Amino acid sequence: MHIKIVKRLINFYDIDGYIIPKNDEYFSEYSNPNRLKAVTGFTGSAGLAIILKTKNYLFVDGRYTLQAQRQSGSNFNIFEVPKFNPKFVLKKSAKFLKLGFDPSLFTSNFLRKNFSEYCSLIPIKENFTNRFINQFNRGSKNSFFALNEKITGERWQSKVSRLIKYLKKRKVHNLYISAPENVAWLLNIRGYDNPNSPIPNCKLILQNTGKIHLIADVKKLEKIKKIKIYKKLKFIKKENFYKLLLKLEGEKFQIDESTCSVLEENLIKNNFKVTKTLDPIYKLKSIKNSVEINNTKNIHIDDGVAVTKFLYWIKYKNKKKITEIGAEKKLEKFRKKSSKYLYPSFETISASGSNGSIIHYKATKNSNKILNFKDLYLCDSGGQYKYGTTDITRTICFSNQSRKIKENFTRVLKGHIAVAKANLNKFNKGNAIDKLARYSLKIKKLDYSHGTGHGVGYFLNVHEGPQAISKFNTVKLEDGMILSNEPGYYKKNKYGIRIENLIYVRKNKKKLQFENLTLAPIDKDLIDFKLLSIEEKQYLHEYHKRVYLKLKNYLNFEEKIWLKNLF
Q1: What ranges in 313-359 are assigned the alpha helix state H?
Q2: For the chain, N or C: smaller number of CB within 10 Å?
Q3: DSSP string of 353-369?
Q4: What is the DSSP letter of 276?
Q5: Per-residue pLDDT tens for 305-358?
Q6: Are 73 and 104 in contact (CB under 8 A)?
């Protein structure tokens, strides 16, 4: 068992424990290889393990507590963050602990916030999981590829110019862009290094003189090198990172506090005065231009057709016993009918009955249920398209449900509508809008343990910041930002409810408002219409009418009649 190998190495290095994160050295959400899964069995997209000689801890957020308990509870004590911070859990230990860690996988900020007060952190060059991680796919060797400005809406040289102005204004000589998705946005390139996002594993140093150093596996740069507009870039082997630093001029060096590793930070500190802040590209790429918005609208028609056909099929046309995995594969078949579709933007959540109460459930051979006529079915899925990224959740029923389930579904729907209709001139930050989403549930002392919405990338990561609709997000929402709108409710071991659309911030006559991108029906059989106001009923009517008008030309006769009867 892998955990035994880690414990043997803990003894060999004469330390008390070892820290294992979810991320790789690129701090990607969907990292490859997944070291945390290899040791704990936990498959979620966020988590942290601490292996001690006699105890094991796994820290996850509220989306994953049930999942972590099922997958790892036999070997690990599960703690939910931010309710439990690792340093306060470790404080209860009988002694001051010496913990080993791989300095290429952690930032100094993360270690300070979670460990520094009650333990001694020992950087160890050998990553303990490398003893067994080679059984995992380390990523594709395919070359990076470029997107032209007709797809991106802006030449990469223009983006670089904007960034250089930022550097000169702040008298920064060098900027280290350590998040691959930010490099991808800046240079209008994509790649094959992540399972659900077209991310090219690379990093970049931009000098305020305009010189650009792209750092990556040289084999993956072959196509980019041949493109004329990229001739001025300097291509650097990732092994030569420190050699590059020695050649750079200037004094002030800005790094990203969220993705620049301890190892890289220390190397940069040897020669420069370091300034730590959030990479400015996060803000720049969060505001989509008109080309990106229009392309995203277009792929939502394709995605809406696939999801709508799937919903009609599974609710009314499927005559066989179908499993969660079977339903997931059927939805994928509908998406593949679009010539623009590439692959899922995350692992599909296809959950029947009690599995729906696991917020980020993934059906496996062991958990795979046959969809029960009496149960709710929750499906959260998305796609990467040419060009854009989608994410949608629908909860449906196959039979008449109890009054309580309908009430809970309707309260989630009321929250969903409250977000969609939010006055962004009054509520212009995610934490304020989050309160609107939860209000109808909260008056019945109900809630959900995840955020109401996340930012979404443009043919990039399905989860993207800095904007979000959540309890603690204070980023001001601006014209062109794309977010999800996904309140929910989960009855432990019973069912899950979530309704998710993607929305974007649109300026209309100097006023900001949300506009729906997602085009798919909401199950009216689960709605208690007595709980809806006249305005909410009107919103639902107009939404379904818009879905019908956008999709009708792509649906068969039966599907059109069904959809038309929803408004």
Answers
A1: 324-336
A2: N
A3: GGGGGSTT----TTT-P
A4: E
A5: 999 999 999 999 987 899 999 999 999 999 999 999 999 999 999 999 999 999
A6: no
Kindly report the length of the chain: 567
Backbone angles phi, psi at 91, to 5 degrees: -60, -30
pLDDT tens per residue across span 266-317: 999 999 999 999 999 999 999 999 999 999 999 999 999 999 999 999 999 9
HSE-CB at 505 with a 13 A cutoff on CA atoms is 28
The 3-state secondary structure of 446-511, one letter per residue: CCCCCCCEEECCCCCCCCEEEEEECCCCCCECCCCEEEEECCEEEECCCEEEECEEEEEEEEECCE
The DSSP result for 367-403, as a single string, is T-PBPPTTS-EEEEE-EEETTEE--EEEEE-SSPPPH
Evaluate if residue 141 carries a pLDDT over 90.
no
Reduced to 3 states (helix: H, G, I; strand: E, B; else coil), residue 50 is strand
Asked if 393 contacts 311 with a C-beta cutoff of 8 angstroms, the reply is no
Q: Which helix (H) or strand (E) holds 256?
A: strand 252-256
pLDDT in tens, 525-565: 999 999 999 999 999 999 999 999 999 999 999 999 999 99
pLDDT in tens, 49-75: 999 998 999 999 888 888 889 888 888
DSSP letter, residue 246: H
H or E, element range at 558: helix 557-564
Beta bridge partners, 50, equal 19, 57
Cβ atoms 90, 115 nearer than 8 A: yes
Tens of pLDDT, residue by residue over 234-248, are 999 999 999 999 999
Rounded CA separation 485/499 (Å): 8
Q: What is the 3-state secondary structure (H, E, C) of 105-153?
A: CCCHHHHHHHCCCCEEEEECCCCHHHHCHHHCCCCCCCCCEECCHHHHC
What b-and-e string marks burial along 495-513, b requiring 16 or more CB atoms within 10 Å of the CB? bbbbbbbbbbbeeeeeebb
> Alpha-carbon distance 485 to 489, whole Å?
14
- pTM for the full predicted model: 0.93
Handedness of CA 85, 88, 94, 96 (dihedral sign): positive
